Amino acid sequence: xxxxxxxxxxxxxxxxxxxxxxxxxxxxxxxxxxxxxxxxxxxxxxxxxxxxxxxxxxxxxxxxxxxxxxxxxxxxxxxxxxxxxxxxxxxxxxxxxxxxxxxxxxxxxxxxxxxxxxxxxxxxxxxxxxxxxxxxxxxxxxxxxxxxxxxxxxxxxxxxxxxxxxxxxxxxxxxxxxxxxxxxxxxxxxxxxxxxxxxxxxxxxxxxxxxxxxxxxxxxxxxxxxxxxxxxxxxxxxxxxxxxxxxxxxxxxxxxxxxxxxxxxxxxxxxxxxxxxxxxxxxxxxxxxxxxxxxxxxxxxxxxxxxxxxxxxxxxxxxxxxxxxxxxxxxxxxxxxxxxxxxxxxxxxxxxxxxxxxxxxxxxxxxxxxxxxxxxxxxxxxxxxxxxxxxxxxxxxxxxxxxxxxxxxxxxxxxxxxxxxxxxxxxxxxxxxxxxxxxxxxxxxxxxxxxxxxxxxxxxxxxxxxxxxxxxxxxxxxxxxxxxxxxxxxxxxxxxxxxxxxxxxxxxxxxxxxxxxxxxxxxxxxxxxxxxxxxxxxxxxxxx
Length: 544
Fold this sequence. Notes:
This is General transcription factor 3c polypeptide 5. Keywords: DNA-binding, Nucleus, Transcription. There is one protein chain. This protein has helices spanning 23-29, 33-42, 114-122, 193-204, 210-217, 225-231, 289-294, 296-299, 321-327, 329-336, 353-512, 514-543, and strands at 10-14, 49-51, 60-79, 82-98, 153-157, 163-167, 175-176, 207-209, 232-235, 243-246, 262-266, 269-271, 281-283, 316-320. With 544 residues, the chain is of the alpha+beta class. Among the domains are: 10-98, TFIIIC, subcomplex tauA, subunit Sfc1, barrel domain (Phosphorylase Kinase, domain 1); 175-383, no CATH class; 466-509 and 534-544.
């Protein structure tokens, strides 16, 4: 498979929310190339890119997001009826602008007839009462509502077989405003443990806060809310705001009920009193909701929080005067000196506003003491933890030192062993080298001897070859001499035979013509001389 490298060139992409037929018009809607360049170079990832289809319309917002797209260039070549495509990667697109939303509804002013144009002249100075909203639709992205059937309504068939709607009565917590008539007493027969505990609590005390009930019952109010509304009601306003009152009890009739009034106490910051010159404030260290949820059974359900003997876990906490008096001595002593009013006011109840402020001031002092103690405890715990950590660190350091010493000793032993092994290896190598040298010398001597023997053998072979060649030469010479002698003998025999023939011829010629013999004898003698010379020459050539 052919792998192609991606070029380092980078591009910026804008996904246009529509089909582009006219490129210049699309660029004009986007604000031009200069605006696109400026947004691509200088724009942040949080900046949105807007586009307007109509000049006065609500713009469509584009979101700048990271992408891993590639910019391809595809070349198409047409050869007869077959098509061939050649893709080429030009670069990468690390960022893109996406228009995920939908266009808002657009208001287009109607124009009907020319008469309306005439009316505009009369209405030029009139006030324009139609103000176009900035946005008509509140959502630009489709939302899945997941419609479900209303659980408080149900359909049933009547006698005629038609469907009728029947609503269910919803159980709501009974809440009243200040000085409204109290709700009636409902029949309540406690059966399980929680119902019995709630009944006993309201028999012992007519008014309870939601937080106090949760702290005593050690359960959230959602687990016993239905039971609670059967035996109590809730004030929405007034001095007993957000408190649960036993049904049938009218707190406005007796000023002794002032002890059950609520105190909405909010903690923002606590000033440090150890150093009066220090104007900085120390925030209450509140526990995070996740930590509370994890340790819910251990953290939330502690009634000392309602008595202000422990710091609350939230910045806002609704206390009751009776609980705070029981927990804080200074507030109890101050409350014994308070003169209650005869009439109950909506804000302060049977107490005076200054008395409530004084109680809250004492509560803040108590919170500061708790914060100081908590800080001291935290410092002590930190010191203990620090000392413990230091001791642990010291022990760890000693252990590490011992381990380090052991490691160093082990390393030293390993180094010594390595040195010894190295020396042994070097000695072995030296012995091996010496043995190799000896073997090489022996091999060299053996090779030299073998070479000498080979040279001797070669010399001997050469001598033998030379002797053989010489013998062959001698044999050939002897053969040649024998052949020459044989040829000479044959030639001599030929000569003798010729001479005899000539003699016989001469004798015959002498008898026939004496006269001619003389002349012929001369010619014969000449021819004989020539033949003799030729024979001599042939014999000389043969001898050679």
